[in-house]
Amino acid sequence: MSFNNKVVIVTGASSGIGAATAVLFAKEGARVVMVGRNESKLSKVVEQCARGGHAPLVIRADVANDDDVKRIVDETINKFGKIDVLVNNAGMGVYSGIMKKGGNILKAYDETMAVNMRAVVHLTTLVAPHLVKTKGNIVNISSIVGKMTPKTKNNISYSVSKAALDHFTRGAALELAASGVRVNAVSPGPVRTDFLENAGLSGVSWDNVGTYVPLKRCSEPEEIAEIILYLASDKAKGITGSDFVSDNGSLLQFNVPQ
């Protein structure tokens, strides 16, 4: 799956799935545009990309900021003159429930949707005209939580954001198909990333989470990155509006203790 001279934007590229995806695209010859907020983490991923391929263009940006989103596209076009692939990977979870004492579910909802959904809509809108020119494609990183009743307390906002992303993926796929642009999604289950730490879930470990699912394991970020590359490649030229699940059986059974 060669991506020689293809220009690929990866949001949330400083760690986890985004970092693994950036490194793998670089290894396959792509000109990677890494977007993230954490400069020190981005620097470590840059080194990995450069070892395996071209040094990436690094854009420190917050996808929830409209000006930053526009700057991502402008800097990419100024540097490379085109865009072939957009990977909407940046995501976050802010936990609060309807009845949680001291919680603010509206604040949690607004912050989560701003990154997980609104930013995707905005970036897709700005990138789409460039993808039409290159007959490129989009891969959105969703989650199995958008397909099930929330299994953990105070997780409603994150689940809703991913359910919305699934619908947006299908709607965008239908609209852009006439222009030769494909749009797909990948829905991981538990993956060993820094998500738990970023969400403030200090009492939860990936080792524990892995015991809740049928295959008794959590995925590694590289497993998801391989699926993303497949969907972005010509090998998947007949696939659009699809949602690829890689969850170690989580949708079959997810026994989280309450």
Automatic annotation (TrEMBL):
Keywords, alphabetical: Oxidoreductase
Cross-referenced InterPro entries: NAD(P)-bd_dom_sf, Sc_DH/Rdtase_CS, SDR_fam
Pfam families: adh_short_C2
GO molecular function, one term: oxidoreductase activity
Top-level taxon: Eukaryota
Gene3D superfamilies named among the record's database cross-references: NAD(P)-binding Rossmann-like Domain (3.40.50.720)
Name of this protein: 3-oxoacyl-[acyl-carrier-protein] reductase FabG-like
